Amino acid sequence: MAVSDHVDFPTFMEGVKKRNPGQPEFVQAVQEVAQDIFDFIGDKEEYHEAQILRRIAEPDRVVSFRVCWEDDNHCIRVQRGWRVQNNNAIGPYKGGIRFHPSVTESVLKFLAFEQTFKNSLTGLPMGGGKGGANFNPRGKSDSEVMRFCQAFMTELYRHIGPDTDVPAGDIGVGAREIGYMFGQYKRITNRWEGVLTGKATEYGGSQMRPEATGYGAVYFMQNMLKHQGMDVEGHTAVISGSGNVATHAAEKIVQLGGKVLTLSDSGGFIHDPDGIDQERIDWVKQLKNVRRGRISEYADHFTNATFHEGKRPWDVPCDLALPCATQNELNEEEAKELVANGVKAVSEGANMPTTLEGVKVFHDAKIMYGPGKAANAGGVAVSGLEMSQNSERISWNHERLGEMLTELMEGIHGKCVEYGKQDGGYVDYVKGANIAGFKKVADAMLAFGVV
Ligand SMILES: NC(=O)C1=CN([C@@H]2O[C@H](COP(=O)(O)OP(=O)(O)OC[C@H]3O[C@@H](n4cnc5c(N)ncnc54)[C@H](OP(=O)(O)O)[C@@H]3O)[C@@H](O)[C@H]2O)C=CC1
Ligand SMILES: O=C(O)CCC(=O)C(=O)O
């Protein structure tokens, strides 16, 4: 007879902390999921017996490697790269690559863990992975970025493949970096294959992928509002970040008749009481993607706007909040401030931007709160569609992909409601996303036996 190791939630978390010392982000991500999963699996003995949650919270593998490159002054630089392959029960590992000085194994493990649930929620056959390096692209020349990307891929290529692991972009990795990495993969392997997503459309990229995460986060917000008889139109929105996700979230809010008040970067935030309209969003895209400047320049250029150095935008009164920069950028105090100022809904473009204490504030106040693993899943969903297009050697047009993204986000919202609906009509989207994401992966793992 099988022996059931039926531990309770606190004992489970003690084990996670002991096995992952010095990895606070990973422990935080597991804790946020595990509390809901323990409620869900209750006396479902098969999940306990097979130790499913314990297995999902232990990455299949973590590859760590040296990345050595030469800067423009001919100095040799040494960085550390990683690929965390968390779980491939339902499809090839899939998830972005992050280049940022704050990247650690803990950060990538949390992201790969989250990605496993997110990818499951999309309904597409993708497992969870994430990678990156503690490399800071800021201030580097194009040639330096190219040499770094080539050095990174020179090791990474042996761990990935279109049916094995398909990376994409994330913080610090956009179209330019994907181009350099794809070129190097192709050179080393002599194969053109859909091994990366987020490619430019000239060489197999999908229409709509650049917009997908930000637009998707707003569609998720729209679905939450609709569920309570409301809409984006006429509402003010506070957005953090000014990269890919933030600028496209801003664009969709404006298209739906909302008014965007803020954007930010790691230097601070800008507040534009006139509203950041499409022309101004285009200006920010140019600033960030071409000139690679700082958001403070916005306030020099648009004189009604103010720059708040070293600050985050959460004390600006608003109806809607979209954290779109990075993890743990919205804490308990800031969540309380948003609630006190009347925020109605929060949709996370970033991964785990709200601390556990901040999430509790939103739940206690019965604010509509869409966690990143559901709200920002539009990006990886369109990446999944890019994989399909590459393997079929076809390409869908912008309009068709827009429809598919809208349907996918509606589907994810529906799954969250199914598993997260509470008495009185409030939807706990965290619980809904965690349980719906877990169930598919867990049932696949049960089918495989002990592997
Ligand atoms: N790109 C995608 O498709 C997806 C992205 N995400 C998540 O969305 C978030 C943003 O990613 P993306 O827009 O692609 O990345 P970008 O690199 O395009 O932009 C990141 C933005 O966040 C800011 N930022 C990064 N780190 C910090 C920090 N420590 N403190 C304050 N601001 C910071 C950056 O400012 P600065 O330039 O000063 O560093 C920049 O404005 C991340 O959490 C990512 O994981 C989620 C799903 C898919
Ligand atoms: O498109 C992808 O594969 C990755 C997207 C991503 O990294 C994320 O969803 O956080």
From TrEMBL:
InterPro entries given in the database record: Aminoacid_DH-like_N_sf (IPR046346), Glu/Leu/Phe/Val/Trp_DH (IPR006095), Glu/Leu/Phe/Val/Trp_DH_C (IPR006096), Glu/Leu/Phe/Val/Trp_DH_dimer (IPR006097), Glu/Leu/Phe/Val_DH_AS (IPR033524), Glu_DH (IPR014362), Glu_Leu_Phe_Val_DH (IPR050724), NAD(P)-bd_dom_sf (IPR036291)
Name recorded for this polypeptide: Glutamate dehydrogenase
Subunit structure: Homohexamer.
PANTHER family: NADP-SPECIFIC GLUTAMATE DEHYDROGENASE 1-RELATED
Pfam families, A to Z: ELFV_dehydrog (PF00208), ELFV_dehydrog_N (PF02812)
Segments forming domain Glutamate/phenylalanine/leucine/valine/L-tryptophan dehydrogenase C-terminal: 206-449
Reactions listed under catalytic activity: L-glutamate + NADP(+) + H2O = 2-oxoglutarate + NH4(+) + NADPH + H(+)
Protein's job: Catalyzes the reversible oxidative deamination of glutamate to alpha-ketoglutarate and ammonia.
Family: Belongs to the Glu/Leu/Phe/Val dehydrogenases family.
Binding site for substrate: K94, Q115, K118, G169, S383
GO MF annotation, one: nucleotide binding
Keyword Oxidoreductase: yes
Lineage of the species this protein comes from: Bacteria, Pseudomonadati, Pseudomonadota, Alphaproteobacteria, Sphingomonadales
Keywords: NAD, Nucleotide-binding, Oxidoreductase
Stored Gene3D superfamilies: Glutamate Dehydrogenase, chain A, domain 3, Leucine Dehydrogenase, chain A, domain 1, NAD(P)-binding Rossmann-like Domain
Annotated catalytic residues: K130 (proton donor)
UniProt keyword annotation of Transport present: no
Origin: domain of life: Bacteria
Residues the UniProt record annotates as site (Important for catalysis): D170
Species per Swiss-Prot/TrEMBL record: Alteraurantiacibacter aquimixticola
